[in-house]
Amino acid sequence: MLLEVSGLKKGFGTGSSRLEVLKGVDLSMKKGELVALMGPSGCGKSTLLNIIGGLLKGDSGSIKINADPPMKYGTKSPNQVIEVRRKGVGWIFQDFHLLDHITSLENVILSLELAGMSSEVAEQRAISAMERVDLSERMRFMPNELSGGQQQRVAVARAIAGSRPLLLADEPTGNLDVKAGESVIELFKELCSDPDDPISVLMVTHDPLLASKADRMLLMRDGVTASSDIRSAWGEDAGVES
Ligand SMILES: Nc1ncnc2c1ncn2[C@@H]1O[C@H](COP(=O)(O)OP(=O)(O)O)[C@@H](O)[C@H]1O
Ligand SMILES: [Mg+2]
Predict the structure, then answer these.
(1) Looking at ligand 1, which atom is closest to the CA of residue 44?
(2) CB of 46 closer than 8 Å to CB of 65
(3) From 120's CA, which of 109, 149, 176, 240 has a CA 20 to 30 Å away?
(4) What is the pLDDT of residues 174-190, one digit of tens each?
(5) Domain 3-11+29-233, architecture per CATH
(6) Whether the CB of 162 sits within 6 Å of ligand 1
(7) Domain ranges of the chain
(8) Cα–Cα distance measured from residue 105 to residue 157, given in angstroms and rounded to the nearest whole number
(9) What is the pTM of this model?
(10) Ligand 1 touching residue 74 (CB < 6 A)
(11) What are the Cα distances from residue 40, in Å, to 115, 138, 206, 207, 225?
């Protein structure tokens, strides 16, 4: 397994305003897997991604990323898991988070330099990442000269350029039209099945059709994740909320 999350719990607040969000999440992902995570708004999807990504600590439970070096955390504070953010996970957000005043390629180079890479190595790596997302023709363009779908591809290049084995994508197609959204999922699938350097992607989406293109769907409900199929993803077996 590339990723092993076990018994992960997280709540916010104290006393009567205490909210238990994650109530013992167990989740594993293999290398090369594309997993879609669905669930109602506010159920804890972003919280789970933030803890896996080393931006937030859990209250109990553990997370392992079996990469080089192996990483074990879950309840460590963000300043104790710098390795996770540098070498473990890459991020894709709904709004692409690109810097507007430098070219697409420079956006990718900059993130590698910030991770400690020399400028020459960073440039080589960034160029090959832009090739992998099929943007070699446009890497000198400014972000605002690219379509939304292309900007999200730049964000994907930035996320994969550092050879991080796990990509966390929090509603990556939320700001894209249907076609551009589908092409981002296709790109994820290509990157996951790349025989030379497969990555794994954990993707939050509200779109059951996009989710159904993943290898697996997980539904988060009542603080845990469970495997799901397209029917329950559409909400057909959703319980009555009181
Ligand atoms: N830093 C925080 N402090 C207090 N409550 C939070 C915090 N972050 C998230 N929450 C709450 O935890 C719940 C889950 O949030 P979130 O993980 O963002 O849900 P989702 O991404 O599934 O929409 C929500 O009720 C949210 O208000
Ligand atoms: Mg969210």
Answers:
(1) 17
(2) no
(3) 149
(4) 999 999 999 999 999 99
(5) 3-Layer(aba) Sandwich (3.40)
(6) no
(7) 3-11+29-233
(8) 9
(9) 0.93
(10) no
(11) 34, 37, 8, 12, 12
